[in-house]
Design a protein that fits this description.
Elements: E1 14-17, E2 26-31, H1 38-41, E3 53-58, E4 62-65, E5 73-76, H2 83-99, E6 108-114, H3 116-127, E7 134-138, H4 148-154, E8 159-164, H5 172-184, E9 189-194, H6 202-210
Parallel strand pairs: 2-3, 2-6, 6-7, 7-8, 8-9
Antiparallel strand pairs: 1-3, 4-5
Helix pairs in contact: 2-3
Length: 215
């Protein structure tokens, strides 16, 4: 039996918060976590200061029923099955999303990945030719297959990594281990703990963006 791969066309979607206008200075590209939909993920960003920012939330290419054969539909970026092609497909998708936007040479690009989306945005950051001004990993980490030093050289600012102090998926020992790992890699990063759970919160996000070089 042979396994054969062929390229195909798929209609994907993304959701947008804010409108492009002459005062737009920054695009925030956000990747949702496992078993989320971009439309509902984007609601976490509704209290973000959009005066000069447009938020773009692509949706994972794999949609499925969360429980059984009907009901709530969710999405994922990939599984372990045929993973290399899935990674290539979603990296191409993220680039295509940005290609469709009215970006200018002065538009700052901030990339944020939440949970599983942190691995997604990390792989894309290593892969893309786009200039990333700020990389944010929220409640997620670099996957083992990503060269963190290569990303560090491509991102113009320190990489921000944020975790809630009540995150259900990471205990304090795991977070300390992560910080030590990144320090050993000599990665230019800033680690921040905020009050909250496994979720994106407006207050720490707005504080982070206020200090971003894209403002």
């Amino acid at each position: 039996m042979k396994e054969i791969h062929i390229p195909t066309t798929k209609t994907a979607r993304y959701f947008q918060l804010g409108e492009f206008n002459p005062s737009t200075k920054r695009v925030l590209l956000v990747c949702h976590g496992y078993a989320q939909l971009a439309e509902f993920f984007l609601k976490w960003f509704e209290e973000t200061d959009l005066k000069h920012t447009v938020i773009i939330a692509p949706e994972g290419l794999h949609r499925f029923y969360w429980k059984g054969f009907d009901g709530r539909v969710v999405a994922s970026w990939m599984t372990k099955e045929d993973r290399e092609n899935d990674i290539k497909d979603y990296c191409t998708f993220l680039d295509n999303v940005l290609n469709s936007l009215p970006l200018t040479h002065s538009t700052q690009l901030v990339a944020l990945g939440f949970s599983q989306g942190a691995a997604t945005i990390s792989r894309w950051a290593e892969w893309t030719k786009y200039d990333i001004s700020h990389l944010i990993l929220w409640a997620g980490v670099f996957p083992d297959d990503v060269d963190v030093k290569r990303i560090n050289f491509k991102v113009n600012t320190p990489i921000d990594i944020l975790f809630g102090d009540e995150d259900e998926f990471y205990n304090p020992d795991q977070l300390l281990e992560l910080q030590n790992y990144l320090s050993e890699k000599k990665l230019n990063f800033k680690f921040t703990s905020f009050k909250g759970k496994h979720k994106v919160y407006a207050q720490p996000l707005n504080k982070l963006l206020q200090n971003s070089p894209s403002t």
